Amino acid sequence: MDSQGQPARAVTHLHRALTDRVRVLGEDHPDTLASRNNLAGAYRAAGDLGRAIELYEQTLTDRVRVLGEDHPDTLASRNNLACAYESAGDLGRAIELYEQTLTDRVRVLGEDHPDTLISRNNLAYAYESAGDLGRAIPLYEQTLTDSVRVLGEDHPSTLIFRNNLAGAYRAAGDLGRAIELDEQTLTDRVRVLGEDHPDTLTSRNNLAYAYQSAGDLGRAIPLYEQTLTDSVRVLGEDHPDTLASRNNLAYAYESAGDLGRAIELYEQTLTDRVRVLGEDHPSTLASRNRLAGAYESAGDLGRAIELYEQTLTDSVRVLGEDHPMTGTVRSNLAHAVAERDGGETGQL
């Protein structure tokens, strides 16, 4: 249910399901452990990373005790906990856990098991998040090669791995290879999954972002507009992916210097994310930071600084001092204050 843009409702229903399973089946039944894992996932989707991590940690401990270190569900719990650590910005613990999970899955399931491929992809993504593209890109390339061999060119997982490799090329500034791969992935997803599949919409968004990164706003903006229109039609106004599409289009308008349309869209996205995801969701914090940046670009430093200050306070409280988002907002606030006070205003 969290995937339908209603994470708070998902938490309520999954909490009730967990309570029922504990009462009927007991604390240690595999179905009870599965319910606990699902509730943790709903908390993560709702941005409540503190409760998500606590629940994932409990589920992992219980699965180790009840099912054993090497049970596939235990390995899945270890992967999910690593994902939650990553979402919270604790990349050190996330990478350590991803590395352990990959090693265990290779040993228990084999090099070519789909779960092993997913672990390799997740570890590559964590390396990328930590800025270690030197380790991330070869791992993505290996995962894609193995997935093509094991699952085939058109398997949805293969398409995901191709999409992620394109993102890493983009992060490394290799826009030629990124755009080529994004275009291929979009073409393949349209053919395999259809025009309206959520993964196809994601590919269209990513290709637009690659065009934008290359400075080709003429191709990027129409693609963002198409993606938003399709996302509203297919997923609904309030789906998290629709909200992300709206945010991305606003950013493209801002890059094109159309601050009026950008600010209007940022304001709408922030209002919707607060309503749908809650005040403390990481995406809500990101929206608040982007809106503050647009105010700053428009010369409205008073509103920009106030919003940066609020976002920084919330980011420290929700994500912690060391989360990349917290560092970004702190830098943006310092820049805006320096600009207000007549200091240097170099591009951040």
TrEMBL record:
<dbReference type="InterPro" id="IPR011990">
    <property type="entry name" value="TPR-like_helical_dom_sf"/>
</dbReference>
<dbReference type="InterPro" id="IPR053137">
    <property type="entry name" value="NLR-like"/>
</dbReference>
<dbReference type="Pfam" id="PF13424">
    <property type="entry name" value="TPR_12"/>
</dbReference>
<protein>
    <submittedName>
        <fullName>Tetratricopeptide repeat-containing protein</fullName>
    </submittedName>
</protein>
<dbReference type="Pfam" id="PF13374">
    <property type="entry name" value="TPR_10"/>
</dbReference>
